[in-house]
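sanity check both lines:
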Amino acid sequence: MNKVDLSDFYADTETSETRAYEHALDIEFIVHREMKRLGLSKSDLAKRMGVSLQSLSKLLNSQPNMTLKTIARFELALGINIVPKVTVSYSKELPFLSSNNFVREQCTSPGILPAELSADCDVPFQSE
């Protein structure tokens, strides 16, 4: 059976709406996983967040416009940090990075960025 590469199709059809929906699903998965790990019910989590059970249910139903404040409330209630991860996209063009090829390569390379390059990248400097 032949493998089909759908990355070009995906790149052509992805929108900010579809990406936001994916992020919301990721956060919903993290919240449910942490609730299970901590043995929390939805009622328990709602109390910790200071919201009604109905409001929590609405937040957990893959709301793609979840605010940063809502994400922070989940983090505080669950005692976790939801850290965005920067990965190189399937796109070969990276318009948000510097036109300097050396900086572009350093910004997209896996690993830790040298301190002197971190200011030129949209990727935050990571230390070990």
